[in-house]
């Protein structure tokens, strides 16, 4: 089984009228509940405004606001663990329909063996 990040950029849902957000939320929750029932949902959620970001530098110093070099910010994401990229695409399509915006699908690299041994089961 492989883990995939399914995500969309901040602002990707800005075309949705405010009055439609309850229906979008309900549809998204329904997809996540189904993924949970299927045992493929690992973790996910929506992220707050990128302006609230803090950046921790390699020296440990902390600055307010997003990294200026970053042009795009993740608006929300789900992590699923499935048998194939096609199955990840299936869940991404379901999420895209619910959230009314396109989804990026990226495969996680396998954990090094010494980390995988200690990773908590899900």
Automatic annotation (TrEMBL):
Gene3D superfamilies: Dimeric alpha+beta barrel. Residues 37-96 form the YCII-related domain. It comes from the Bacteria. InterPro entries: Dimeric_a/b-barrel, YCII. It holds the Pfam family YCII. Belongs to the YciI family. This is YCII-related domain-containing protein.
């Amino acid at each position: 089984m492989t883990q995939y990040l399914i995500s969309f950029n901040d602002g990707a849902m800005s075309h949705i009228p405010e009055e439609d957000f309850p229906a979008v939320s309900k549809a998204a929750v329904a997809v996540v509940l189904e993924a949970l029932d299927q045992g493929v949902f690992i973790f996910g959620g929506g992220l707050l405004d990128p302006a609230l970001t803090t950046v921790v530098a390699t020296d440990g110093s902390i600055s307010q606001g997003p990294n200026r070099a970053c042009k795009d910010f993740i608006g929300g994401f789900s992590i699923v663990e499935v048998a194939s990229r096609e199955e990840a695409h299936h869940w991404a399509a379901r999420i895209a329909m619910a959230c009314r915006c396109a989804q990026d699908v990226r495969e996680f690299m396998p954990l090094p063996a010494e980390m995988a041994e200690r990773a908590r089961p899900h």
